[in-house]
Amino acid sequence: MNAVDPTTAPSVAWIGLGAIGTPMARAAAGAGFPVTAFDLNPAARDAVAEVATTVASAREAADGADVVVVMVATPEQLDAVLFGETGIAQVLTESTTLLVMSTVGPAAIEAVVAGLAGITARVVDAPVSGGAARAATGDLLVMVGGAEAAVAAARPLLDALASNAPVVGARPGDGQRFKIVNQLLCGVHIAAAGETLALADSMGLDLTQVHEVLGTGAAASFMFDDRGQRMVDGAFDDVRSALTIFVKDMGLVGDAAAEVGQEVPLAASAQQIYQRGSELGWDRRDDSIVYEVLRGGEGG
User: Fold this and answer.
1) Interval 168-220: pLDDT, tens
2) Residue 179 bears catalytic tag
3) How far, in Å, are 97, 190, 254 from residue 11 at the CA level?
4) Residue 87: which CATH number?
5) Catalytic residue among 179, 189, 230, 285
6) Which of these three, 136, 151, 171, is where a domain ends?
């Protein structure tokens, strides 16, 4: 995590304090940035109150900030934050840098750029990967899309939040395209881990041993290690990444693939598994619950 001088650091408005947004906001404050934070959930605001100034509206947070970070869950939430009845667009200026760190797809970012025309051109598209633990230590991967001047304005904050924050394109939206490819891999790997352990269980194998042994060979992967352990433990209510995130993200993968005419059969199969979990009412449970979806279980 790269620290800055608090007396010269750009002021940061942080909007969205979910499972990843909270540790990221805390990491930014810990690196020396003056952070003003807002979330609709008062408990989420309380979780950062010791390190950041908390306020009662997104517009109040954004007013006068040098960099405005938006870390919400869906394209609809992003649109509401910016252009809704109490949206922040009204208090942004040409010197404001808007840093969208949500995974919302390129179309949503392009709509933001169009909506902010004449207000600010400093829009940086910077979705993240790495999870809550890495977010807390400033060790994320951030995939950055945006014009050189806008990225330069956001760079000190990006470097405080990430161990790797490469510019992957000059257009806002390019970061989302990279993140979609990332989520295709992650989503398929989680589903594959669930399918692997479901088959092992059906064959009467010891799941703990399967996870331990396969994790030392060519079949090993981060998702098999991480989500596989949660599957073995049945830790579906210890939510580190909710199923609903991959319901959304695999939908974005499908939309992006359809737009360019690219076949993605593995992603499509994985998407069906996440959707089945959603239909069972498991949206807010850990995404490792795909194991239970494949076993036909009741989710522990």
Assistant:
1) 999 999 999 999 999 999 999 999 999 999 999 999 999 999 999 999 999 99
2) yes
3) 11, 38, 37
4) 3.40.50.720
5) 179
6) 171
Verify that 46 and 110 share a domain, yes or no. yes
How do beta strands 97-100 and 123-125 pair?
A: parallel
Residues 183 and 257 in one domain: yes
Please state at what angle helix 75-83 crosses helix 106-115, rounded to 10 degrees: 10
Half-sphere exposure of 54 (CA within 13 A, CB side): 19
CATH number at residue 258: 1.10.1040.10
In a domain, 300, yes or no: no
- Using an 8 Å Cβ cutoff, are 158 and 142 in contact? yes
Torsion angle, alpha carbons of 40, 42, 48, 54, to 10 = 70
Q: Report, as an integer, the average pLDDT of 223-235.
A: 97
Return the DSSP state at 286. B
Question: Are 144 and 289 found together in one domain?
Answer: no
Beta strands in 96-193 (DSSP E): 97-100, 123-125, 128-129, 140-142, 144-145, 162-164, 167-169
Q: Which domain holds residue 210?
A: 177-295
The size of the chain, in residues, is 300
State the pTM of this model. 0.91
Same domain? 148 vs 19? yes
Percent of the chain with pLDDT over 90: 93
Neighbours of 276 (CB within 10 A): 14
